[in-house]
Amino acid sequence: MNQFFRSAAAALALALAASAGWAQAYPTKAIRLVVPFPAGGPVDQTARELGARLSSSLGQSVIVDNRGGAGGLLGADVVAKAPPDGYVLLLSSAGALAIVPHIVPSMPYDPKKDLAAVTQALKVPAVLVVSANSAFKTFADLKAAATGDASKINYASAGSGTTPHLQAELLKREAKLNITHIPYRGAAPALTDLMGGQVDMMMVDIPVALPLIQSGKLRALAVTNGKRIPVLKDVPTVSELGLPKAEAYNWYGVLAPARTPPEIIGKLYSAVGAALHSPELMKQFEQQGVEVVGSKPEEFAAFIAAESQRWGVLAKAVGARME
């Protein structure tokens, strides 16, 4: 019996050594970075910038694979079901990980069980915008018009259950606004109608709205960040407006399939962190009003859990649903 256990222990030691050696050699082929949104959007652009730098540091091609649909669910599911070898990764925003699981009756994956956190890449504040032709010059103007039973103020979103929808609902709750939700199929048509005066206001990720603000087509009334954004230095934060609980962010993070070896997770964490903190990307993200994070895997996992709790409660309270 003792001989049996000694043989089993020796076999296990050899297997672990082989696994460690395989992980050290990683990567030996191209890596697929799945983006659960169509090409051209901010998550896709981030993936392509990040992928180019990862290709250089890891010595293998990083191929961006756009798998849009269902609020990020379809792309995340591809990664959740991929082999746990580090060659299929996910770059997702908050929706697929912290919101969609609460508004889809039958989820094909469980973010907690089927995905392994690598790092939170970016923190993306939102900005409250109105048309440049709007009568609302400040948040106080908007609040005065949106308070009381007579309010006819409405707000656009990229769709029910999206991060901008829930950010607006959070602001509505904290500022006690009487505003009506007008969901659209994506941010682009919503912004078009906002600029045209068909809707009154919208919460949107700063990188999406910034060119329209800078070109004079939109007016920014508040940012959801804890401190002022350098590229929008004249725009107050929600905390400055007396609404600290309305502080909220979208965010992007890198994940791998569950059971990916810790050695590979560690190597990816280091590579992604180095890429994010390169002077070129740091400057680019700052100009977009975005903050680089680069958190440790365990920190990102805890952050996802906290965000899921926060947005899940709100999504259910306002009746958000996948359209």
Helix content: 40-55%
Kindly, what is the distance between the CA atoms of the first and last residues, rounded to a whole number of angstroms? 61 Å
**Could you state the CATH homologous superfamily of the largest domain?**
Bordetella uptake gene, domain 1
CATH class of the largest domain: Alpha Beta
Task: Kindly estimate the percentage of residues that lie in beta strands according to DSSP.
Answer: 15-25%
Q: Can you tell me the number of structural domains?
A: 2
Report the total helices: 12
The succession of helices and strands, N to C, reads HEHEHEHHEHEHEHEHEEHHEH
Question: Mean of the pLDDT scores?
Answer: 92
Taking the sheet with the most strands, its summary is: 10 strands, mixed
Low-pLDDT runs: none
Shape: globular
Q: Output the structural class.
A: alpha/beta
CATH architecture of the largest domain: 3-Layer(aba) Sandwich
- Rg estimate, integer Å: 22 Å
Q: How many runs of DSSP E, i.e. beta strands?
A: 10
CATH topology of the largest domain: D-Maltodextrin-Binding Protein, domain 2
Summarize the structure.
This protein is an alpha/beta fold and 323 residues long. The chain has helices at residues 2-25, 42-58, 73-80, 94-103, 111-114, 139-145, 163-175, 187-195, 206-214, 262-276, 279-287, 297-318, and strands at residues 31-35, 62-66, 88-93, 115-131, 154-157, 180-183, 201-205, 218-223, 249-257, 291-292. 46% of the residues lie in helices and 20% in strands.
Give an account of the 3D structure:
By secondary structure, this protein is α/β, with parallel strands linked by helices. It has two domains: 30-124 and 250-318, D-Maltodextrin-Binding Protein, domain 2; 125-246, Periplasmic binding protein-like II (D-Maltodextrin-Binding Protein, domain 2, 3-Layer(aba) Sandwich). Helices cover 46% and strands 20% of the residues. Strands 1, 2, 3, 4, 5, 6, 7, 8, 9 and 10 form a ten-stranded mixed beta sheet that branches. β1 (31-35), α2 and β2 form a beta-alpha-beta unit. α2 crosses α10 (262-276) and α4 packs across α12.
